[in-house]
Amino acid sequence: MTYTGRMRGSTVVVVLLAVGSAASADPKPTSQTPEQLCSCRGDASARKGGIATVDAFHKKYGGTFKSADEEKLAWAVYQATNRCDSTMVIGRLEDTGSFFQKPGYCVLRDLKPWTIAINDVFIHAGTDRQAMFLLVSPMPLEKQSDAGDSFPVVYNREMREVEDTHRYKLSGQPDKFSTAKPGHLDPMPCYDVSGTWTGSLTVSDVHGASNIQPGQRRNGVVTIEQEGCRVHLKFATNELAGYLIPTEGPPLVAGLLDEVIAGALVKADVTIPPRGPLQVQLEQQAAAASITSTGRLKHGH
Q: Are 258 and 267 in contact (CB under 8 A)?
């Protein structure tokens, strides 16, 4: 969602006068609801990654909202946007209007109450499912400050939020974007790391009280499922999800998985160097202890 600032150095005052019974006010526009943000092309539940539960959403975003009501609305925005297969549209309000409620597009135009935090959630709901972003307004090339909520600031912030995932490539010239010739932020392909990886894991660090000691070893069998840059890691009864970084591979592939689905694992760092095994670092929370294990695993195909 973006704002158009008022004209510099001038203030426009509009006075509406009711003249007798003949005067009739125009109906007040109805603000957008989360359900009106997207018109899905197909399956409204189609996703290529994202937050599945309100608890996981609260864990990731809870500290960014000023009230429970703001967080509740943000979660509704996330769900409506993430569970759709449509292209994300960002730009000036006058430019995004032609895409509003058009099949195949998600547009945030008049959601109330609106905040920067909710706007960020709208963008992240798209990047989490690896959606394409359509940029329908020209954007000044110079960097803008994050202070305030004027059009250039919000639009730049939206673009940066997408680019900071390091999973998108910008196409076109930002100062020439338009509805007729929009720019694109397209998700980049990722190197395929799916399959079963086997080897041994060694406890490298223990914080807190635990019977497990550094240096202990165990067999490790890790299964990775992948769709685009989204990966789902399974290790014993533990499951994590996250994203690979396509700009780092091949030949080097790296990723951080920190979305807990099941079990005691809370984070996994994965790296695959040129022609090498999967290097993995797993962080586990067990009772009052945090246990880190590392290992080099071979691909079992």
A: yes
Q: 150-188 pLDDT, tens per residue?
A: 555 788 889 899 999 999 999 988 888 999 999 999 999
**Token pair for residue 85?**
């297969």
270 secondary structure, DSSP code: E
Choose the final residue of a domain: 135, 155, 187.
187
Domain that holds residue 219: 195-299
CA distances in angstroms from 159 to 75, 96, 195, 256, listed in the order given: 21, 15, 34, 22
DSSP string, 126-161: HHHTT--EEE-S---SS---SSS--HHHHHHHHHHH
Measured CA to CA, the distance from residue 151 to residue 137 in angstroms comes to 10
Q: b or e along 187-197 (b: 16 or more beta carbons within 10 Å of the residue's beta carbon)? A: beebbebeeeb
Q: Which of 155, 187, 219 is the last residue in one of the domains?
A: 187
Tokens representing 95? 């430019």
Distance of CA 43 to the CA centre of its chain: 20
Q: In the numeric block, which tokens belong to residue 236?
A: 């014993």
Nearest to 136 by CA among 182, 199, 98: 182
Q: Is the pTM of this model over 0.85?
A: no
Predicted pLDDT of residue 124: 96
Residue 82 inside a domain? The answer is yes
Rounded to the nearest angstrom, the gap between the alpha carbon of residue 186 and the centroid of all alpha carbons in its chain is: 14
In the block, residue with structure tokens 């069998």: 221
Within the chain, strands assigned E span: 38-39, 87-90, 105-107, 133-135, 168-171, 183-187, 195-207, 217-227, 230-235, 238-244, 253-262, 265-272, 278-286, 289-299
